[in-house]
């Protein structure tokens, strides 16, 4: 199948991306690892001993960096619809966390414990129709926020990828209603032309 100009441009951009090359050298599963590394350096969300939930975790770029940060005294519970290869110190639950069976599995893994940080790098399968994709992405981050409200400890933190566009301002306002402090981050590893930003909520009101 002949490649379209757009897909060829994306492939060239991806192959020549310094963060893709760096991830290969550093042994990271995804260039996205550097986004969370930068956010955590700035906002100090995840510490040794933290209990962290990673939503939309496959292929594991975020869980991979979080696991050593939390250490043996912390925990990482990751979930994705897609499969993910195992990571030491990470409990992975495959499935759609909005389905009751999967949600119950996550809760039973927590065993009554609340979570310090919920992170989400989820993105929808893009259709190429901007409006449809934007609604799909907002829907996903709304689900991530719902999960955070259900599992976070008071004072806990939240970090989620969101695309600027229709529904973004309302979503940011919704996050502000549940957290004392809300910041918007655009990490260096995020492609400049991408509309993605990361909303960081600190001090969950519970």
From TrEMBL:
Its EC number is 2.1.1.166. It is found in: Cytoplasm. It comes from the Bacteria. Keywords: Cell cycle, Cell division, Cytoplasm, Methyltransferase, rRNA processing, S-adenosyl-L-methionine, Transferase. The active site is at 161 (proton acceptor). The keyword S-adenosyl-L-methionine applies. One of its GO terms (biological process) is cell division. GO terms for molecular function: rRNA (uridine-2'-O-)-methyltransferase activity. SUPFAM superfamilies: S-adenosyl-L-methionine-dependent methyltransferases. S-adenosyl-L-methionine binds at residues 60, 62, 80, 96, 121. Residues 28-204 form the Ribosomal RNA methyltransferase FtsJ domain. Pfam families: FtsJ (PF01728). It catalyses: uridine(2552) in 23S rRNA + S-adenosyl-L-methionine = 2'-O-methyluridine(2552) in 23S rRNA + S-adenosyl-L-homocysteine + H(+). It is an enzyme of class 2 (transferase). GO terms for cellular component: cytoplasm. Belongs to the class I-like SAM-binding methyltransferase superfamily. RNA methyltransferase RlmE family. Specifically methylates the uridine in position 2552 of 23S rRNA at the 2'-O position of the ribose in the fully assembled 50S ribosomal subunit. NCBIfam families: PRK11188.1 (NF008390). This is Ribosomal RNA large subunit methyltransferase E. The lineage of its organism: Bacteria, Pseudomonadati, Pseudomonadota, Gammaproteobacteria, Alteromonadales. The gene is rlmE.
